[in-house]
Sequence to fold (232 residues):
Amino acid sequence: MEQGTEDVPVVYLHEIKRQYMQGEAPLIILNGVKLALWAGQSVALVAPSGSGKSTLLHIAGLLETPDQGEVYVGGAPTSQLSDTERTLLRRTEIGFVYQSHRLLPEFSALENVMLPQMIRGLKKSETVKRATEILGYLGLADRLKHRPAELSGGEQQRVAIARAVANAPRVLLADEPTGNLDPHTADHVFQALMQLVKATQVAMLIATHNMELAGRMDRRVSIVDGQIVEME
Ligand code: ADP
Ligand code: MG
Fold:
């Protein structure tokens, strides 16, 4: 599938610029990034370390604001939103998966997936139901009560994915989500992500160094001189 059913991208990055100061001199990381993410489409972001993949994902996820440019979510600009509005939008529309799972160690898998929904104000019984469903869908039905330390790396990462999609976001951003996993486990976690895209029509952007996995996604892009280029 090349494009989702809607004709507005779920996320559109327009002329994004981001630089960091390195002593006196600016270090330009993103220099006019344009990128549309569509419902139901998986996009691999493949670029060398230090080229700005995490920066781009953080900006797309409204975790960081660009120096210039606009991030549109569902066609609406976000640069003028208040912190509260931005947080709310992030909570409902955006899921984020990191290279390390970042689960709360004192809580069970189920509780980790319930939390984002409870923060959003859903009833506890609803959060239990939905968290159980998602974890079951990701093959973790018999791991609900396990704490992160009692799970394998691949299981931890699947719980992190379940947490990221707990509020049914429209975009899922994953920053090298299989980077810490052995090839077999990476493949399992990757399949879970791809399954979610097809089942929920979420838009997905995954930063990865794994060319084999990138090859199995709908589309591949890279960052060259601070700009997005389509690969192939
Ligand atoms: P990637 O994820 O592709 O490895 P990053 O987006 O993490 O790249 O970083 C891109 C570049 O920006 C790197 O050279 C990094 O050192 C620099 N950088 C990232 N964050 C900061 C920051 N907060 N302050 C200064 N430089 C930063
Ligand atoms: Mg990175």
